[in-house]
Amino acid sequence: MRYLLSSLLLVIVVAANAQEVKSFTLVEAQQYAIQSNKSLKRSQIDIEKADIRIDNTASVGYPQVNGSAAYTWYPAIPVSLIPGEIFGGTPGSKLPVQFGTEHNYAMDLSVRQMVFNGSYIYGLRASKIYKQLVRKQVDQTLVELQSTVATAYLTALAAQESYDVIKQNIKTLERIRFETNELYKNGFAEQLDVDRIDLSLANTRTAIVNAQRQQELALNLLKFQMGYDLKKEIGLKDNLDLFVNEELSNYYSSVSRFNRIELDVIQKQIELNKMNVKLQKSFYLPTLNAFGTYQVSAQRNTFDFTHTQEPWFRTAFIGLQLDVPIFDGFKRKSDVADAKADLRRLELGREILLEQIDLEIEQSKTSYKNSYEQWQNQKSNLALAENIYNTTLIKYKEGIGSSLEVTNAETALFDTQRAYVSAIYELLIDKTDLDKALGKYTEFK
Questions:
Q1: Residue 13 lies in a domain
Q2: Is residue 4 part of a domain?
């Protein structure tokens, strides 16, 4: 009974672990990364900060209202000296008198409203453009993330394909080893034939251990780029062949270099710097502010401000304040010149970026063409190597071929298989680079 319960528990644990393995297509992996990648989440916080910056800038133009209350106690009321002749005293004499009361209380409400300020107008516009710039920068992070995940996914697929090929080769070698050993037992083969196959089998088993480690490393890299838990298992739904069915012709003919997100980013930086030039110029303009204050105060000889018979004194005033900049030692002039220099630098940077994009596109096209042709060649080579291997194996079984020929054909086949997998991987990586160069990843936003 105990054995049965243990077995059931083991089955449940195995089933639970199996359910934890989640598989992704490339598109699903990219979508998961968009939702989970910590670097992207950190970039999105910058949008929130940009909103806060806009609100902070806008708040300066709203009415600024302040209230205050002050209580003053004079244990010794200040003394003032007045001419004595006012009260019939000797001319030139001074008479000490005290003005005021021991307890004083005042409350006031002041309002200040900006009427015109050029720097506020352009500053508010600049903060809105800054938010647009931050959004473009987040989009740029998104494009980089999709490209990075695609590279990691294809690397993991190539490692998995390599592992599967070696695993299949081991099964083939084990079958041939069994058949050759049977021939040896019946006197139709030599011990050397068996030894050759054992050596190939040992080398292939070593290769599969290395392939398995490479596969684990590739999957961990993919999980990291996706923001997936490194402790959890992950599966890949796609296979390499799925990505190489697209024809080379007309693949990139309809795509414009202006799809690149980097151009959008630098264009927003240019707009922001243009606004900065206007902002610096606005400091030459005068500013106009309205203000007003309403105050009530009470003066008592005793600490009693609730007595309704005692008077409260009121004060109110409203005014305008005009500030006109006259001379600041040429500081504003240098600030405008500095802003214009930054603008020219960015405009030149955009021209350089366009040239770099054109060069990157041409290089990516060339690399993709070369990889495509290499893949086509390796595809033909693989078919040829398989045909040679199968023919050599048939000749060996019929007694008209040697085990050395089989070993050589087998080595050639395995090398061609590895070259074919490598060619597919290089083709897909070059295709990913070309997609990025052409700005195709912006289509996934």
A1: no
A2: no
For residue 2, the SS3 value is: helix
**What is the domain-level CATH number for residue 385?**
1.20.1600.10
**What angle is formed at CA 205 by the lines to CA 202 and CA 211, rounded to 5 degrees?**
145
**Domain membership flag for residue 134:** yes
Q: First-to-last CA distance in the chain?
A: 58
pLDDT in tens, 4-16: 444 444 544 444 4
pLDDT higher than threshold 80 for residue 346: yes
Tell whether the model's pLDDT for residue 131 goes beyond 50: yes
The pLDDT score that the predictor gives to residue 3 is 47
Is the pLDDT score of 231 beyond 70?
A: yes
| pLDDT computed for residue 44 by the predictor | 84
| Cβ(55)–Cβ(157) below 8 Å | no
List C-alpha distances in Å: 169 to 40, 136, 196, 235: 42, 49, 15, 23
pLDDT at 244: 74
Q: How far apart are CA 161 and CA 158, in angstroms?
A: 5
Structural domain of 383:
19-61+117-285+328-444
Other Cβ atoms closer than 10 A to 56: 10
Structure tokens at 37: 């990648």
Q: Is 64 helix (H, G, I), strand (E, B) or coil?
A: strand
Within a domain: 373: yes
